[in-house]
């Protein structure tokens, strides 16, 4: 059984490029399917947020969500009400770090020094890192003291710029996660918009969008089983 740290955004809004404020948080389906898949496989999953704040579900992710998703999320309420403080997590404490999406990670996890520290440590010891949809925004924090991106040259999927234009924040997005990762040297291997797409590059597992939630959880379980 692996010890998994699920790092969840702590924000409930994001400032758009035009100055408006957009309500956000974590995406319900992504957090639920990752958590459920890992727990069903017998892994221990802890939740952490910056400052230990209770995370907020993105209201857009509840529109049309199934009763199965909302029911599982309701059952997680006690866990989400008392997350670990991200700054208190020690290097090497977990076998895997997992980042669900929602636009929230763009606002806090992308620049969080403690997440960056943990991700650099994970990359250096080849621990499993799983990211989904906008969760890869958290990888942007993984910059070494010398300025090198810890995941440069690694293949990954991410909510694409095309998807952001088609069904995301569009031109109002404060930045585009795919473009930022490319600029830092990540090798983007996403597929057609809205396809269920998962990319594995060694210990790095990434899913493209909400449609990839179940498949990403399944791939993480496979990778952890092989450790």
Polypeptide structure, described:
The chain is α/β, with parallel strands linked by helices. The protein has one domain: Class I glutamine amidotransferase (GATase) domain (Rossmann fold), CATH 3.40.50.880. The chain is built from eight helices and eleven strands. The strands form three sheets. The chain has a seven-stranded mixed beta sheet, sandwiched between helices. It has a two-stranded antiparallel ribbon with strand order 2-3. A two-stranded parallel sheet has the order 8-9. α1 (28-40) packs parallel to α8 (213-225). The radius of gyration is 16 Å and the shape is globular. The model has no long low-confidence stretch (mean pLDDT 98).
Backbone CA Rg: 16 Å
CATH architecture: 3-Layer(aba) Sandwich
CATH class: Alpha Beta
Domain count:
1
Mean pLDDT: 98
Number of separate strands = 11
SS field, number of helical segments: 8
Structural class: alpha/beta
The N- and C-terminal alpha carbons lie at a distance of 10 Å
- Main β sheet profile: 7 strands, mixed
Spatial order of the strands forming the largest sheet: 5-4-1-6-7-11-10
Order of helices and strands: EEEHEHHEEHHEEHHEEEH
| Percentage of residues in helical conformation | 25-40%
CATH-defined fold name: Rossmann fold
Family: Belongs to the peptidase C56 family. HSP31-like subfamily.
Domain DJ-1/PfpI: 26-222
Protein name: Type 1 glutamine amidotransferase domain-containing protein
Keywords: Glutamine amidotransferase, Lyase, Stress response
